[in-house]
Design goal:
It is a single chain. By secondary structure, this protein is mainly beta. The protein contains no helices and eleven strands. The strands form two sheets. Strands 2, 4, 5, 6, 9, 10 and 11 form a seven-stranded mixed sheet that branches.
Length: 127
């Protein structure tokens, strides 16, 4: 059974950093697309970042460009989201998701269907 499990969330002050992990089982990570999404209180879920099987192909939301970095470790079947210079507006539940529809490109604008989702991990940025 394909599963994704997020971890690494927590409480951090503005300007701080967190690294989220997405552990994947049940499919070959290096052949598929992984996206990170978040849902802030009272708002709909939005795309944050995604990474394709070609590591160089990555997409980041304008709100996180220059602050967030996505990477993968295929040997560990894990995708990471490094979040730096965190802002209060980054607060929310962060989800990783896998798309089986593409391999060499990805998007987070709603045009690419993500087939499997993790349970989410809470990130709170507050002073």
């Amino acid at each position: 059974q394909l599963q994704l499990v997020e971890s690494g969330g927590g409480l951090v002050q503005p300007g701080g950093s967190l690294r989220l992990s997405c552990a994947v089982s049940g499919f070959t990570l290096d052949y598929n697309v992984i996206g990170w999404f978040r849902q802030a209180p009272g708002k709909e879920r939005e795309g944050v970042s995604c990474i394709a099987s070609t590591v160089a192909f990555q997409v980041h939301a304008d709100s996180v460009k220059g602050r967030f970095t996505i990477s993968r470790d295929n040997a560990k079947n894990t995708v990471y989201l490094q979040m730096n210079s965190l802002k209060p507006e980054d607060t929310g539940v962060y989800y990783c998701a896998a798309s089986l529809k593409r391999r060499y490109s990805c998007s987070i604008d709603g045009t690419l269907e993500y087939d499997y989702w993790g349970q989410g991990t809470q990130v709170t940025v507050s002073s």
